Amino acid sequence: MIRNNPVSQARIDLAAALRSAARLGLHEGVCNHFSVAVPDTDDRFLINPQGLHWSEVTAADVVMTDARGNIIEGRHPVEPTAFFIHGRIHLGKPSARAVLHTHMPYATALTTIQNGRLEMCTQNALRYYNRIAYDDDYGGLALDENEGDRICAAMGEADIAFLGNHGVVVTASTLAMAFDELYFLERACLVQVLAMSTGKPLSVVSEQMAAKTAKQMQGESQQAFLHFEALKRMLDRDQPGWSAL
User: Fold this and answer.
1) Which domains does the chain have, with CATH numbers?
2) In angstroms, rounded to a whole number, what is the distance separating the alpha carbons of residues 216 and 53?
3) What's the predicted TM-score (pTM) here?
4) What is the pLDDT of residues 63-73, one digit of tens each?
């Protein structure tokens, strides 16, 4: 494959996101999924293969599929729930060019608390002000289109969903933005869980200040891009071969 081809670059970026997530402890075994829409298409996406640890995925391992579960390109199978979550979100939410689903520990911890919410108590949390949908009704494994459609509907216009007793879904218009959102979401949840563990009440920022700060943070695509490029440089330094096509 030609490396400067947009599809090849998308494969490389997806491998970078998966490996970086593993380095940061955002993965869980060989489960969970990251996907990105194939450039210039609306009905095809790239996704991580079944059975490979995120730390070993290369660009060549990334699978191209359609939203119905048909593999178009790739040498590996894809885990079934990936089709029913990612495929339905990509189809039902065209703005979601990148869809990241994880059971990362601190965000997932908040989904296990009754009425668990990301509170506006840290600067990192403020970037998510009025951007999170909460689906408090656990729906079991996503083994059919109905569950994927239910999750997509629960998201509504939100970029991010907290799935009760399950994990989170983060979407964005680019993979760099989605990864940046995922990273800072877990950081915000981590600090909140630590603060809650003291048993003392959280100091929540006022609605007015939360709205103002969130507006200041909107569209921080340049910082997300720089973050993602730095992660790829770290992979080049520490894990040669990760981007092989």
Assistant:
1) 6-238 (3.40.225.10)
2) 37
3) 0.96
4) 999 877 899 99
